[in-house]
């Protein structure tokens, strides 16, 4: 599988609280290197606060890194994002703040297309159908939908521009267990040629969607394991996550 994204020696520190003039910084990412193959679904796991979302925000161009490089199809990430508008997308945990509560669902889904100057309204019924929602939902507003329905709307919006790469950052974490399963099945069914990065604390969800799992610990990738290698995990964070998941015991 050829590399779609190559992350090399990524490092990022954050300013410690202590006033505007404080220069004290705390490393979050020390030396993170990994590849995501073209068309691969890759999971990124690790304890809370370890820097998983920081990596996703850096990949998406929402945050700067201090050093290291990110190549997408062999091109520096900022240039790739500029040359491929709409081809990188994301679904976040908080579906409420991901969408304007005053807008109709149709407008929320169509916005990324409208921004690109494409005819948006015609695409909405098809996008709703792809995520298992009825066309009439386009007229409703976010407060009229359940959490699971709203996350489906966020997924419809994320795929509206036909991205080639999607980050799912804790995209099922705030949903009830039964709804989580539905959304995981939806995500699994969408894949096609897309490349996925699936960020989660939930090793069972990761193993359901992704054939390979990365474990982030101490600011770098502690292990990269395929599903069949999970039983031989050696890093502390991988072992803890595996031991906490009953089916793996
Ligand atoms: N905007 C920010 N300003 C300051 N510190 C931040 C900011 N965002 C994250 N951090 C800090 O950076 C570190 C990494 O956060 P990050 O959200 O990337 O971790 P995470 O592994 O995704 O955590 P979780 O699993 O809890 O979402 C944490 O210590 C966090 O408190």
Intertermini distance: 31 Å
CATH homologous superfamily of the domain at 1-84 and 165-172 and 200-249? P-loop containing nucleotide triphosphate hydrolases
Number of helices: 8
- Estimate the mean pLDDT confidence: 90
Q: If you consult CATH, what is the topology of the domain at 1-84 and 165-172 and 200-249? A: Rossmann fold
Order of helices and strands: EEEHEEHEHHHEHEHEEH
Structural class given helices, strands, pairing?
alpha/beta
> How many strands in all?
10
Biggest β-sheet strands, sense, barrel: 6 strands, mixed
Q: Please report which band the strand proportion falls in: under 5%, 5-15%, 15-25%, 25-35%, 35-45% or over 45%.
A: 25-35%
Overall, the morphology is: globular
CATH architecture heading of the domain at 1-84 and 165-172 and 200-249: 3-Layer(aba) Sandwich
The small molecules bound here are: adenosine-5'-triphosphate
CATH class of the domain at 1-84 and 165-172 and 200-249: Alpha Beta
Strand order of the largest sheet: 6-7-8-3-9-10
Residue ranges: pLDDT <50 for 5 or more in a row? none
In short:
This protein is an alpha/beta fold. It has helices at about 50-60, 75-85, 105-115, 125-130, 145-160, 175-190, 205-210, 235-245, and strands at about 5-15, 25-35, 40-45, 65-70, 75, 90, 165-170, 195-200, 210-215, 220-225. About 30% of the residues lie in helices and about 25% in strands.
Describe, in plain words, how this protein is organized in 3D:
With about 250 residues, the chain is of the alpha/beta class. It has a domain at about 1-85 and about 165-170 and about 200-249: P-loop containing nucleotide triphosphate hydrolases (Rossmann fold, 3-Layer(aba) Sandwich). About 30% of the residues lie in helices and about 25% in strands. It has eight helices and ten strands. The protein has a six-stranded mixed β-sheet, with helices on both faces. The longest helix is centred in the last third of the chain and has 14 residues, at about 175-190. The model has no long low-confidence stretch (mean pLDDT about 90). Bound molecules: adenosine-5'-triphosphate (ATP). Adenosine-5'-triphosphate binds near residues 53, 54 and 201.
């Amino acid at each position: 599988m050829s590399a779609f994204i190559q992350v090399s020696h990524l490092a990022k520190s954050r300013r410690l609280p202590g006033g505007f003039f404080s220069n004290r910084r705390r490393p979050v990412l020390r030396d993170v290197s990994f590849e995501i193959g073209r068309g691969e679904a890759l999971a990124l796991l690790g304890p809370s606060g370890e820097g998983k979302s920081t990596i996703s925000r850096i990949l998406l161009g929402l945050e700067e890194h201090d050093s290291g490089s990110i190549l997408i199809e062999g091109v520096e990430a900022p240039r790739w994002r500029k040359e491929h508008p709409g081809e990188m997308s994301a679904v976040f945990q908080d579906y409420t703040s991901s969408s304007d509560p005053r807008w109709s669902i149709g407008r929320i889904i169509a916005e990324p297309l409208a921004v690109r100057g494409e005819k948006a309204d015609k695409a909405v019924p098809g996008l709703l159908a792809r995520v298992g929602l009825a066309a009439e939902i386009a007229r409703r507003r976010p407060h009229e939908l359940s959490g699971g329905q709203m996350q489906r709307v966020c997924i419809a919006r994320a795929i509206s521009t036909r991205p080639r790469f999607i980050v799912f950052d804790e995209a099922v974490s705030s949903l009830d267990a039964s709804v989580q399963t539905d959304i995981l099945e939806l995500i699994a069914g969408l894949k096609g040629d897309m490349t996925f990065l699936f960020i989660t604390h939930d090793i069972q969800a990761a193993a359901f969607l992704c054939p390979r799992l990365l474990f982030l610990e101490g600011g770098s990738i502690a292990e990269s394991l395929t599903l069949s290698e999970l039983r031989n995990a050696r890093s502390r964070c991988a072992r803890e996550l595996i031991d906490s998941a009953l089916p793996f015991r």
